[in-house]
Amino acid sequence: MHGDSTSIAVQDHVTSDSFRSAVGSFCTGLTVISAIGPKGPVGFTCQAFSSLSLDPPRVLVSVGRTSTTWPHIKAAGRFCVNVLAADQMALSRRFARPGGDKYAGVGWSCPPGGSPRLDGACSWFECAIEAEFDAGDHLVVAARVLALDTDADRKPLLYHRGRYTSPGESMPGPA
């Protein structure tokens, strides 16, 4: 509605904080991007994941430029996108932190020549890196989907306005 006095004022100067606040109104899923690095499995939490093409199947992943994990994944040339389930909030937090053995006590499997697949994920996508693009403080990675699987009975873990949630319910605590 135009002219509604309850609408938010238009900002003519976009700051990082105002942008983060506005983008936070968009609900996203949470994933863990995983690969086998030179010293074993590596991974990081990523909420900037989307489909790119159905034919051929391709996805996009956005990676922070300061990521210390991405160089290992890029060198591997392939990765797995693990779509986290509603009961995997602890995994999201674990893989969002830098350093440490993120896989300690975590159930996962890895097919020969593949990337780590986290137990209990809603779905996973085994991907081969095709291109990387400069995107400000992030890199955008386009990847070809080589294999996938999904568990239609699992509800996804979502992120909205700085909080974890799942379809139809709220979950406590900021990330």
TrEMBL record:
It comes from the Bacteria. It comes from Streptomyces violascens. Keywords: Monooxygenase, Oxidoreductase. Belongs to the non-flavoprotein flavin reductase family. SMART domains: Flavin_Reduct (SM00903). This is Monooxygenase. One of its GO terms (molecular function) is monooxygenase activity. Residues 23-166 form the Flavin reductase like domain. SUPFAM superfamilies: FMN-binding split barrel. The keyword Mitochondrion does not apply. InterPro entries: Flavin_Rdtase-like_dom, NADH-dep_flavin_reductase, Split_barrel_FMN-bd. The keyword Oxidoreductase applies.
